[in-house]
């Protein structure tokens, strides 16, 4: 299993524009999301607290969470609740919970020594897209 902690720089996308179009994202929000090239920093402390900091040209945000605990987090389209888990292969999965869970987007982050692949899956439609990041630190 690769170390999750690190700095990840966005390199390329697969199907992201189509993913947001099919989700019915607002035109301007969709265009903004597609054009963003985020840098993601992930830190895990000794107590198992994760800090996932995303930096973009438009907005920066930090999510702080512990695995297996439901947490409310700001998202581009409001505040949503999620639960985070890591499987035996080191894949970090972010699953929406609560009222809008079935219409939400599940995010899987798969790590390697070279980087991270973030897979977005719209739970209602099954549509997915990928964002690729290289590890810079």
From TrEMBL:
GO terms for molecular function: lipid binding. Coiled coil: none annotated. CDD domains: FABP. Belongs to the calycin superfamily. Fatty-acid binding protein (FABP) family. This is Uncharacterized protein LOC108678885. It comes from Hyalella azteca. The gene is LOC108678885.
